[in-house]
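Anyone? Bumping this.
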Amino acid sequence: MRIAVIGTGVVGRTVAARLAELGHDVVVGTRDPSVTRERTQPDRFGTAFSTWLEKHAGLRLETFEAAAAHAELVVNATSGLVSLDALASAGAANLDGKILVDIANALDFSKGMPPAVRASSEESLAERIQTAFPGAHVVKTLNTMNAFLMVDPAQLAGGDHTVFLSGNDASAKARVSELLRSFGWRDIIDLGELSTARGTELLLPIWLSLMSALGIPPSNFQFKIVR
Amino acid sequence: MRIAVIGTGVVGRTVAARLAELGHDVVVGTRDPSVTRERTQPDRFGTAFSTWLEKHAGLRLETFEAAAAHAELVVNATSGLVSLDALASAGAANLDGKILVDIANALDFSKGMPPAVRASSEESLAERIQTAFPGAHVVKTLNTMNAFLMVDPAQLAGGDHTVFLSGNDASAKARVSELLRSFGWRDIIDLGELSTARGTELLLPIWLSLMSALGIPPSNFQFKIVR
């Protein structure tokens, strides 16, 4: 499948690399590719994006707009606070009729740690994205675990834990479920309409507390729904 | 231990009965015991409180105030929207220096289903209770599952799932952990300070979505933190 991954942070990189490994035609989208390519110092993810890109020859780096235009399916892997802006740069016309997989969380670090989560039981980031881009089929998933578990759940407890799906379009959710299964997910719970993304986005406060409480190695834990 | 359970709904009843069964001296607190006793028609929990009380001879029904005055440990099992009011009726002096186990959720059904959850990543009900009653040692726990699982976790998957603890007083949390173990809990995660109750209170939106998505029997599921 032709896939755009919007965002060059650790989540975007990890998801893009895995999708390319699975044989998809993947373009990573960034605001200004020349600026992103010029960064040669190791960043907070350990490696400069350009160094990382050299190691993943199958991947291309393009503007948000060119990446989205290329794709049948777009992954929003930006920070949730800038997602609407990044997707606007990608262009509503380039998202129209496409599956938009939203894996972002709107974490506001402006007042320090832990960040405030910009979601409530009455509004989610995913719904704000759907409202802004009504022609896209938004599916929320994968926002409740670290990037490495997103694409390789089997590395923890043999994959015996849960990923959630929310969205208004059943066929879009079915396509995204296939992708998740190709990552190794076995326990996929379809929560229902996109409004149920409020629940998964609101898992972030306890996720952040667990990261502190459970200690090293940080964030190598996951939610499982026992039933 | 001398324990007050504040609240006569299904959560209060279930917890009170289990504590009495375990040999504790339990008083259930209600606003007006004569009104509660006079209710003889089956209510939305299936049984009138008076009928239920007759079957639990070891339990007494008293005012909020008398129940709290009696107790070494107080359980807040009221609806979260009225908890501060009920605890004010119990009397700050009757909570002073005591462990206050808050198992409530502030669910606002005024706009229909699903209810809005009156908590955010910046404020929890538990913290509002702690601020209102600074002399109490508030411990948040058990608010992330149905009442039957609260007191008997082994009935689902042999008890292989997780309960969370939040609170500012380590010895209060240790006492509450003992109580939880007496219920059958084995996987108890101390999340840290009381502010981490924001995370457990914000599990309610996904809990409500799961209740719809997973179907019958409703709410017989639980969170497990795999690590």
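Late reply, but here is one note on the structure posted above: Chain B has a mean pLDDT of 96.
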